[in-house]
Amino acid sequence: MDLAQNFQPAGLPIREYLLVGLTTAVLTFLGTGLVRRLAIRWGAVAHPRQRDVHTVPIPRMGGLAMYVGVCGGMLLAHQLPVLRRAFDYSLDPVAILLGGGLIMVIGMLDDRYELDSLTKFAGQTTCAGILVLLGLQWIILWVPWGGDGPGGSLLILDQNQGALLTVFLVVTMVNAMNFVDGLDGLASGVGLISAVATCAFSLHLLDESGGDVTYYPPALIAATLAGACLGFLPHNFQPAKIFMGDSGSMLIGLMMAAASTSASGKVQPDGAETIALLSPLLVVAAVLFVPVLDLLMAVVRRTRKGLSPFHADKMHLHHRLLEIGHSQRRAVLLIYLWASVLAFGTVALSLFDAFAVGWGIGIGLLIALVVSVVPRLRAR
Q1: 110 known member of a binding site
Q2: Dihedral through CA 130, CA 110, CA 285, CA 197, nearest 10?
């Protein structure tokens, strides 16, 4: 493949990505009702437990409808002349369909039979391996040391290093999204926010590169994920009619990790400006911040008690918001606010003046903090 083939005429295919995202949303929305009936008939129903917030049995397995929507969106993109470049020059979309399909099936089995944590971990690692085998892995990683100036340096990863980093990111993100899925609409909303931010960042890279086909796949992955979350959210927002279950939360985690890897793992900034070098990894960090923070806190909390990191409890971030006096809806909306400020603020760093954006992010985080502690302040 020569260099001329890697670049296409400038111009962002925003309408095409919107069409794919909306198509995915419609298919997911329509399919969720059918999946709900199937889940009830198959017995994939979440019965209330001590650590749960819901009080009545609710069917799960919504990830099946989300995956069907993603498949429909990918099929449409394959038929569009512009977005077909995502398939012609990369196997990333195929990796999503195969790896995402397998992790969705593993999640469905867990939704019905509640698999043990070791079996799920093995399945998650296998799905991450599928992404790696099809070429969806980290190649370049920025580090803050080395180089001739203060801007750090770029590490060129070999196949083994890139594969290990990719598997680690996928497994971490899959479990983080699984842990976040504790309130109605929480995982689907955070997934939607993260996917839109990643899609915007990928479109920025596409524009900056003059149409480099490298950046078509991450935007497509993020657009279909955003559509799937958007289509599922009306069924899942409080009061939920169906849960996405592990089939949905693990699918979101895998697709988010894949989109971030496809967008940032191959970026080669051309300049010593720190923000330009940092922005790809900052976007990944911002997108993953809320779920990964919850995951890390859970692991530390459980291991200090001598329990397994996968041992379930009722001390996640959303549970803490409920404890201090927020309603379910308000707790979910607050986490949406935190995720939005971090994700979209970081994307804005690569688009606008860093100083002004930094002030905006700081003000946004301050507002989110004040709103979060209002019930506790009132109690005093």
Answers
A1: no
A2: 90
| 221 assigned to some structural domain | yes
Query: What tens digit of pLDDT does each residue of 90-121 get?
Result: 899 999 999 999 999 999 999 998 888 899 99
Residue 216 lies inside a defined structural domain of this protein: yes
User: Is residue 341 assigned to a domain?
Assistant: no
The span from the CA of 177 to the CA of 130, in Å, is 20
pTM: 0.84
Domain that holds residue 60: 10-271
Residue 377 host element (H or E): helix 354-379
- Dihedral, CA of residue 216, residue 261, residue 317 and residue 65, to nearest 10: 50
Q: Which residues of the chain have pLDDT under 50?
A: 1-5, 7-9, 150, 270-280, 379
Q: Domains in the chain: how many in total?
A: 1
246 is in an annotated binding site: yes
Instruction: For residue 164, give the amino acid letter.
Output: L
Q: Is 56 within the bounds of a domain?
A: yes
Per the structure block, which two tokens stand in for 362?
């700081």
What is the DSSP annotation of 323-335? HTT--HHHHHHHH
